[in-house]
Design brief:
The protein has 586 residues and is of the alpha+beta class. The protein has helices at 3-28, 71-75, 243-251, 335-345, 360-377, 380-394, 396-422, 427-441, 450-468, 511-526, 533-550, 555-578, and strands at 42-45, 48-51, 80-84, 88-93, 98-108, 117-121, 130-138, 154-155, 159-160, 166-171, 176-184, 189-198, 204-215, 229-234, 237-242, 264-267, 269-274, 278-283, 289-299, 302-311, 314-316, 321-332.
């Protein structure tokens, strides 16, 4: 490449890095209105119009203990209804009627054969509390005893399974009978139905609520292209907030106080807390309005994050009853399953629970094609190689034109050098003569960068697929690669494990990453040499820079880029040779 090409290539690299780093900061973070812009919303139930409640956030319950308790010991105390389904095991705590114990069947924590299954939910007194609450709260100054975190419910069964729903009941002794029915399917959806029967002589005003609670900031993936934390869809708009940002906004006053964030009234939608691969989200009735918000609190020195929803205020007439039904998704963010739930339950934008990123319109087709190819070739690793070939074929003609132009540029290199030497003291005249040479030889100086530029969106989309899709988690390839979504485990920088040292991210240079660097260098040698010595040196260092840049990337992406380089080298060499780029006699 000549100087213009080099600048364009470096600019393309800078743009890619800026997009990858700045995406979360500039695009993904929602704008929160100032406190004086927050107004109470109006919601409607049937023919009645009600104002969003003036009451505070639902009760958190007892504060967490100073010293966390052992999870097994807490669960062993009894007072629980067991959960047994094909993909979930755990229990419901009868004290509080709380769903606080779930383990994902079939998803192991690590690649080790004896690795335990992934624990999703844990009781509030353990080291990593994560649980879901449901219930009713008083409105309009009423003081009806409602079930809370310390309420002891009675269950009509010992096991919740797809075939056997379980109903919990509690009588407040003042004429109101509360019941809650849990039903679970074969996957990760749990139906939650709350009912109030009013046997008293006067009506009561109540409001249903639910909350997904998490204490402490969990270890996250630390990627600018991946969101973990609060997530929800309100009024057909995706909203999300990281743990750190929610905490900072609460503490610095961007959010009114430590008990309430911005309330959003919506009909249709959902909200919860997401990890890279797992999601816990409440899905209200999609035809009824609800208020939803994210909040942070500090309780006894512990960070508490809550994704809260409330339904419309409801008057339960004397001798009458009201009920509300929603669903809790608690499980793995499997693409086909998420899409199936969105369709069958009519959940607004539930597919956005998977963070497909900025290039959503490309990431989804890339994932679909990878899955299709995987079914044909037997593994995601081979599917990555196959999709690389497909991408190369898609841009075949564009690449051919580019390589023809680069071949012409390579042949023009001696003339370019002579012009620069001849007019080295007159930069303006030098540029004019160079442009005349381009026009005479009919060469486009930026054509060599086009294949790189057009592949940037595809590259980012594939990166997103490898980073966030659970289908790639623990997906093996040949040899030492056991997880395409993780870094290359065979590191050159610790002599393939002979040195007892765990290098930091950018120094964790794997064998595949080194191979990628070599292919980049070989490809670079086919390009026209920059006449400017400084640019030439910068250009020579690009493969090394990319080695450090790709060191922390998923190895599946490194394999893609390496294979892409090899195909490019073959195609470029053949095209340029055919057009005499390597003919020294010209």
């Amino acid at each position: 490449m000549q100087s213009e090409d080099t600048r364009n290539l470096v600019l393309a690299i800078v743009i890619v890095l800026a997009m990858m780093i700045g995406y979360e900061l500039l695009i993904a973070r929602p704008v929160v209105p100032p406190p004086d812009a927050r107004t109470e919303q109006t919601v409607t139930t049937g023919a009645d119009s009600k104002t969003a409640p003036a009451v505070g956030s639902p009760d958190l319950g007892a504060a967490p203990p100073a010293a966390p308790e052992d999870r097994a010991a807490v669960l062993g105390r009894g007072g629980r209804v067991a959960i047994k389904s094909p993909r979930l095991t755990g229990s419901i705590r009868l004290e509080g009627g709380r769903l606080d114990d779930l383990t994902l069947v079939g998803y192991r924590q690590t690649l080790e054969k004896d690795s335990p299954d992934v624990v999703l939910l844990s009781p509030s007194s353990t080291a990593a509390p994560y649980y879901a609450d449901f219930g009713w709260q008083n409105v309009q100054g009423a003081a009806v005893p409602v079930p809370g975190a310390s309420t002891i419910w009675q269950a009509d069964g010992d096991v919740l399974s797809p075939a056997t729903p379980v109903t919990l009941t509690w009588d407040n002794g003042q004429g109101q009978l509360f019941s809650r029915t849990y039903a679970i399917d074969d996957n990760y959806m749990i139906a939650v139905s709350d009912k109030v029967e009013n046997r008293a002589d006067a009506p009561v005003s109540l409001q249903p609520y639910g909350a997904v609670n998490r204490m402490g900031i969990p270890e996250t993936a630390q990627s600018a292209l991946l969101h973990e934390g609060f997530i929800g869809v309100f009024n057909e708009k995706l909203e999300h907030e990281s743990y750190e940002t929610q905490k900072e906004d609460t503490q610095d006053g961007s959010i009114a106080d430590d008990r309430q964030a911005l309330r959003t009234a919506s009909t249709g939608g959902w909200l919860g807390i997401t990890d890279k691969y797992w999601l816990v989200a409440y899905i209200p009735d999609q035809k009824r309005p609800f208020n939803g918000w994210f909040e942070y609190r500090n309780v006894n020195g512990r960070d508490v994050f809550r994704s809260v929803h409330t339904g419309a205020q409801t008057v339960v007439p004397a001798g009458g009853a009201v009920s509300t039904t929603g669903h809790l998704f608690a499980g793995a963010k499997e693409t086909k399953l998420i899409d199936a739930y969105e369709k069958s339950f009519g959940i607004v934008m539930f597919d956005r629970a998977i963070d497909w990123g900025w290039f959503y319109f490309l990431a989804r087709p890339v994932f679909w094609l990878l899955e299709l190819l995987k079914g044909w070739v037997g593994s995601f690793g081979l599917a990555i190689l196959a999709i690389t070939v497909i991408i190369k074929l898609a841009f075949f003609q564009l690449a051919n034109k580019s390589y023809i132009a680069m071949g012409k540029m390579r042949k023009l290199a001696p003339k370019m050098t002579a012009l620069r030497e001849r007019f080295k003291d007159d930069p303006v005249k030098q540029r004019e003569e160079v442009m005349k040479l381009y026009q005479t030889e009919k060469v486009n100086p930026v054509a060599g960068c086009l294949p790189i530029l057009v592949q940037i969106p595809v590259f980012i989309a594939l990166y997103q697929v490898l980073m966030i899709s659970i289908e790639m988690r623990h997906a093996p390839f040949y040899g030492w690669v056991k997880d395409l979504s993780d870094q290359d485990p065979l590191l050159i920088t610790n002599l393939f494990g002979l040195i007892p040292w765990d290098p930091p991210g950018f120094l964790a240079i794997g064998l595949w990453t080194a191979i990628m660097g070599v292919t980049m260098y070989v490809q670079q040698m086919l390009n026209p040499p920059p006449p400017d010595p400084i640019q030439a040196k910068v250009f020579q260092f690009l493969p090394l820079i990319f080695i450090f840049l790709f060191a922390s990337f998923p190895v599946g992406l490194v394999i893609y880029w390496t294979w892409n380089n090899l195909l490019t080298i073959a195609q470029q060499w053949l095209i340029m040779k055919r057009h005499g780029a390597f003919d020294e006699s010209t």
